[in-house]
Amino acid sequence: MTVPAQYLQIAVDVASRVSGGDLREGDRLYGRSVMASEYGVSPETIRRALRLLADMKVIDVKPQSGAVVLSRDNAKRYVEGFSEGAETRSLRQQMKEILGEYEGLNRRLVEVSAALIQSQEMYSSATEPLPNYEVSVPSGSPLIGKSIGELKFWQSTGGTIVAIRRKQRVILSPGPYAELYDGDMIILVGPPAAAEAARKLLAGPIEE
Known about the structure:
By secondary structure, the protein is an alpha+beta fold.
C-alpha cells in the first residue's frame, strides 16, 4: 500500500480525533509549533494539514487566533472519504504490481519457449543420421595408388571419408596414409555437393 504524504496523515489523525470526540466543536487546537513537535514534522507540514482540514470545513483557521474545531460531521466525512481513497490507491498499487509481475512472467515465458524450441531443434538435428554417399574409384583413375592425404580429399570435396569397402573387406576410418585401389568404394559423409565433387576428383581431369 502506498504511504500518503505526512501532512495527509496528520490531517486524517486530527479529523479522526474530532470525529471520535477527543476534540469537540469549538475546541482550539494547539499552535503549529506545538503540533510540529508532537508529530515530529516541520511547522510548514502542520500548516498544510490544517489548510486541508479548513478546506474540508473540519476546522476554521483564523489569523492570530489559531485553529478551532468547526464540524464533527465534516470530520467524519473526511475520514471516510480518505479511507475510501486509500483503499482505491491500495488497489491501484496492487494492480500495478500484478501487471509488473505479469510482464516479467510473460518475458520469462517467451525466453523459455524460445530456448526450448532451440534445444529441440538442436537435439533433433543431432539425433538424425548423417547423410552418407558411396563413390566408386573407376578403373583407370589417375588417383589409384595415391593416399587420402596426398589427395587432400576434404579440402577438395568438402566430404569426409569414413570407410573404404574393398571387395569383401571394409576399412573403417581410414587414415591419411590409406591408398586408393582400383574398384574401391569410398563411403563419405557431407553435403550432396561433396559426393559429386568426389566423383569428379576420382575421374580425373577431362581431356580436351
